[in-house]
Amino acid sequence: MSSHGTPIPMISEKSGPLSGEAHVPGDKSISHRSLILGALAVGETRVTGLLEGQDVLDTAKAMQAFGAEVEKRGDTWHVQGVGVGGFAEPDRVIDCGNSGTGVRLIMGAMATSPIAATFTGDASLNSRPMARVTDPLALFGARAFGRSGGRLPMTILGAEQPVPVRYATPVPSAQVKSAVLLAGLNAPGETVVIEREATRDHSERMLAGFGATLSTEDSAEGRVITLQGRPELRPQEIVVPRDPSSAAFPVCAALITEGSDVLVPNIGLNPTRAGLFTTLREMGADLTYENEREEGGEPVADLRARFSPDLRGIEVPPERAASMIDEYPVLSVVAAFARGQTHMPGVKELRVKESDRIDAMAQGLRAAGIGVEEGEDWWTVEGRGFGDVPGGVTVAARLDHRIAMSFLVMGLATEAPMMVDDGGPIATSFPIFEPLMTGLGAKIARQTG
Ligand SMILES: O=C(O)C1=C[C@@H](OP(=O)(O)O)[C@@H](O)[C@H](O)C1
Ligand SMILES: C=C(OP(=O)(O)O)C(=O)O
């Protein structure tokens, strides 16, 4: 059941060539951060290209509850910030819906102010681990009172007199790193985060852009990020780039759908995000980067994806996992249409996303006729090659947008249609998924009756 309302059963079936341009929405990670950093700046931040998915809209509401003004006028989002240390105590529960990024970053942003806030979410978010952020926030002096196992609903009492922190993240997580950095903003002195494996670096880039003093250094311990506390953040004009994690769906759909040729323009290829595209090219995908350029200090290109009937399974290097962590579900679908095994090690984090993504994909793929083996932190998909994947089953989306979209992409090339019990969660990150895909020629529809 979706907590966003009545379940929306969806179906996809074998489609003719996909063609045309796929204009995917703004980057989810950068959209959350634009609103949160805008709320912590002094003055008005203006944002265009913001992802208007439910996850980000929930973060916008949360920023209002902490005292920032957030308003959309025309195509532009205006955020009137309250300054570092200026958050007011919310007079209502903060509902972050389905969003791990939203709740974890906001907890960090409020943890070093002397206020209390209570957080909740949907059934998926309320089952996800929060100790990974509340443990380092406790070092600043914040206290957390949640359900057993460190789950939401949870109240955070912000530190009265925060102290800066030096913290080595025990899991590869940009959300944990970002929560610590955002908390560090209102702690006097230097906050240091060390990550053994580099994760997406949007917080570092954007904090620097807002005028914080921050340095990044690669050392024997890993990547060391040092932030000077109590800066005055300057408001920014932000143009949010398009989301490579959303681009993954039309790209992968084109690779497995006979005769396809799809252009996905203006996709950010920040190396901390682009691992999927490297992997697909190693598998033999006809995926090219056109019009490569730099925008706002980030590499950007138009992606052209064409039907690729000769894909082969590969070993995905574990050190690449962080740069494609949200893309493993749809990669496993492409792997089903490749010849041979695709082995994906070093991906324990997939088990604590909106669903246990290894389990969710393994069950659906097996039902659809694909062999999958799995361990705690790895899985292997036995590809059958193009034209030989049965399909013909209904899979559970488990309140997980990426699971729903992955199986709908799969159905475009299986012998029998694929059904998903609830496409409602797709609106959390990719609200225009259905019209965008049908506009390319994909047979994806809501099921009635
Ligand atoms: O920081 C971010 O914006 C995100 C970090 C990742 O989560 P983890 O930090 O849990 O790896 C990713 O899965 C999520 O979609 C967005
Ligand atoms: C893991 C994801 O999001 P979040 O952690 O923000 O819920 C995702 O979008 O795939």
From TrEMBL:
The keyword Aminoacyl-tRNA synthetase does not apply. The active site is at residue 326. Residues 14-435 form the Enolpyruvate transferase domain. Transmembrane segments: none annotated. Pathway: Metabolic intermediate biosynthesis; chorismate biosynthesis; chorismate from D-erythrose 4-phosphate and phosphoenolpyruvate: step 6/7. Keywords: Amino-acid biosynthesis, Aromatic amino acid biosynthesis, Cytoplasm, Transferase. Its main location: cytoplasm. Pfam families: EPSP_synthase. It catalyses: 3-phosphoshikimate + phosphoenolpyruvate = 5-O-(1-carboxyvinyl)-3-phosphoshikimate + phosphate. One of its GO terms (molecular function) is 3-phosphoshikimate 1-carboxyvinyltransferase activity. Monomer. Catalyzes the transfer of the enolpyruvyl moiety of phosphoenolpyruvate (PEP) to the 5-hydroxyl of shikimate-3-phosphate (S3P) to produce enolpyruvyl shikimate-3-phosphate and inorganic phosphate. Belongs to the EPSP synthase family. HAMAP family: EPSP_synth. This is 3-phosphoshikimate 1-carboxyvinyltransferase. It comes from Litorisediminicola beolgyonensis.
